């Protein structure tokens, strides 16, 4: 006799339910960035948590590799309207980073900063509680440089411009400060399900 639910597998959700408004599904992984892909030597790579101008904690690549690892698989949504399903990432959760630094987040907001001087703002509440990580692997391999390797922020529930590539640190800020795209007309928060693409959406 076949028992319903015996395999413990849920039926896959239909594509329409997984696509936020205005998005389409792609199988590709488009590359979107301002400038050329920076080449980052792992011997010189470091990752820093800071509060304004004050550094709080810094890790070398070797130290970062020793931190607890987290895996996440799910859908990502770019403001240019593509969505990609079931992407698989591995890295260090922001919860584990803060614990390893021995600190609680000093403010409610931060700017993620890239080696290419890109910045983007994210509320701390959107990164803790298992909602964000500094990813170093994609689909079981080191993240390719074009997609932000050696390390990129991953905040999958917000539009993908919030997932800063070539991330070099997180800077806690007293107020919610606009980053590169947010200063140029993009939304301060960027929730794909509320279609927050531009400043006044
Ligand atoms: N450091 C950095 N991160 C960045 C960008 C950038 O120009 N520099 N572009 C952002 C934008 S606009 C998008 S849509 C995504 C694209 O990520 P992908 O190239 O891996 O698809 O990266 C975001 N992260
Ligand atoms: Mo983008």
TrEMBL record:
Gene3D superfamilies: Oxidoreductase, molybdopterin-binding domain
CDD domains: arch_bact_SO_family_Moco
Chain segments carrying region Disordered: 1-20
InterPro entries linked to this entry: OxRdtase_Mopterin-bd_dom, OxRdtase_Mopterin-bd_sf
Record domain Oxidoreductase molybdopterin-binding: where: 35-181
Domain of life: Bacteria
Protein's name in the database: Protein-methionine-sulfoxide reductase catalytic subunit MsrP
